[in-house]
Design goal:
Elements: E1 2-6, E2 9-11, E3 33-35, H1 37-53, E4 56-63, H2 68-76, E5 81-86, H3 94-105, E6 112-116, H4 127-135, E7 139-143, E8 145-151, E9 154-164, E10 167-174, E11 177-181, H5 193-201, E12 204-207, H6 243-252
Parallel strand pairs: 1-4, 1-6, 4-5, 5-12, 6-11, 7-11
Antiparallel strand pairs: 2-3, 8-9, 9-10
């Protein structure tokens, strides 16, 4: 089964988020880059499917030359091919990104296109749906259970489940199809040493997409880090001495009748 997983290079933020002085980008001087957790689970799901049914997994990303590092990380997890849609590093909007992806995958014979449910930085939820629309394919989003059903000629359809208000919605969709998965559909494996060595030696297919349009309907004004409220705990007292203070606090909160 031929599967393509689309991932995005996003900042690896482990502490306070800083914005560049011009307000246009996240300051990553003290951090690195990774892919979104949803997308890592998408790669793991694709690898597991091909381990059961055979085939190969291609991982595709749009970004600067450095984004090849994230592709190699996914190759180390078991993906077979890496495709880089190389840009100058400028942010591409969802319309331009989806167009570049759709043009690249056309005619490559992928039976299943997997995406993360949303990227960890912009969280736009748009690119997978737009790719599906451009390719005329069915699309199911927010999936946390995925089963490939094979017929006499090979994989024919998928059964996908997603959680909704305490129950599960189940979709029976013919292939080829587009699916976005959520973190928790599986537990991604750790890259093995042989996997890392194989990924280091792998050749990344590099493609220059058509130039990004001047405008695709969206314009970034600036980024802003929301103000955080300080949190702390106050000790009201101990034993019976704390009772008056506790009663007063409950009265302020309107809990007492």
């Amino acid at each position: 089964m031929e599967i393509c997983v689309c991932v995005k290079r996003v900042p690896m933020v482990g502490g306070a988020i800083m914005v560049t002085p011009d307000g246009q980008d996240v300051d990553v001087a003290m951090s690195g880059f990774t892919v979104s957790p949803h997308e890592e689970c998408a790669v793991e799901e694709a690898v597991q499917i091909t381990e059961r049914l055979g085939g190969s997994v291609s991982v595709l990303t749009l970004g600067p030359p450095e984004a090849a590092d994230q592709l190699r990380d996914m190759l180390a997890l078991g993906a077979h091919h890496g495709v880089l849609l190389q840009t100058d590093g400028a942010e591409w909007g969802p319309v331009a990104t989806a167009t570049a992806i759709a043009e690249t995958i056309a005619g490559r014979g992928f039976e299943l296109l997997l995406f993360g449910n949303e990227s960890a930085d912009t969280g736009g939820y748009q690119v997978p749906v737009r790719v599906a629309h451009m390719q005329g394919l069915p699309c199911v989003t927010g999936i946390k259970r995925l089963e490939v059903v094979a017929g006499e000629g090979g994989p024919e359809r998928i059964v996908a489940g997603r959680e909704y208000r305490g129950s599960e919605e189940v979709f029976d969709v013919p292939l080829p199809a587009v699916v976005t998965v959520k973190e928790g559909i599986n537990l991604p494996r750790y890259p093995s040493l042989p996997g890392r060595l194989r990924a280091k030696r792998a050749t990344i297919e590099t493609i220059e997409p058509r130039p990004r349009p001047e405008s695709d309907g969206l314009r970034k004004v600036r980024l802003r880090v929301p103000e955080s409220t300080s949190k702390g705990a106050q000790v009201l007292g101990s034993g019976a001495e704390a009772v008056p203070a506790l009663v007063g606090l409950l009265d302020e909160l309107g809990v007492l009748p």
